[in-house]
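How it folds
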Amino acid sequence: MKKLEIVPFRKFWQDCFNCIVYSIIDYAFHVPDLYYYNNMYKYLVIDHTLYDHEKELHYNSIVPWTDNQSIFNKITKNNEVLDKENQKDVIQYIKDNIDKNRIVLPGVDLYYWIKAGLHYHHNHFEHFSLIIGYDDDTEEVIVLDTGDDMFAEFRVEYCDVIEAISHAKEIPTVTADIDYEADIKLFTKEELVECAKVLVKSIDKVIRLKDDIWNLDGLSDEAYYELMSILQTHTFSMQNRAKIDAYMFKNTFEDDRINGISLGDTLTELATKFGNIKMRCVKSLYRKETINEVPVVKEGVLELMEETRKLWNLFIENNDQLTMKCIEE
């Protein structure tokens, strides 16, 4: 048995890859807690696939997106993509890399992955996971991923590992060394302002495309249930994003008030409102009454996006009123 002492990042959850990257940083680098909150993002309208009685349907959803790939590239080196065509023994490949203390990010089809996952034996959905070890006695790999206890440590049997990686057609399996000399810095106020402008533009785009978001009619009850499960995840990500931003403002600036308005307190209120929408999704799933709830959730999310845009515009236009704290890195 071999295991890297990487622990799951659980300060917050935005998406799985975000937690993977921050778990690696927490393991390899000494950074202040604020680093994990001192990053910017934008909203994307993403094409998703839904299966209704084997019929493939596409719809657009809203997700907050941080450029975690750039962060990953910055903290790693000697990156290698698994050649699945010529690598006959995937398990041995994984073990060899773990033995060398290399990071292993398998691209997996979640249908075959962790049993505690939302998609296990239910829906084909690809993403990156993080393998931190293996156990030959039980014939399992040790992974960090998102399950019913959020981002945590799980075990996956070798046979499922092979299935999950082989069925992932779009996302590769990547291995890398950690670059312990990587220069990790907090954003300056000027950089935060530029990132905020990108965020506002992305919200503008979401508002323009609102008629094309979560626009599915005539689905079966099972498909509506699946759609609401996805909306629950995405609204939870939005809730956490507002919490992250609230922490950032409260801990980055000497005083986070602009014209008497506390940016941190306002974002905390927004997080609560996003949380209420997420709970509406949860309750509709519990009651199995999802058909009429999708437009209600959509309307609520779009209203909060407008509030989010208004707040960040306030920061962009009046950031001269804010003074950054002196934080040792």
Observations:
- Residues 46 and 61 are 5 Å apart (CA to CA).
- The longest strand covers residues 42-52.
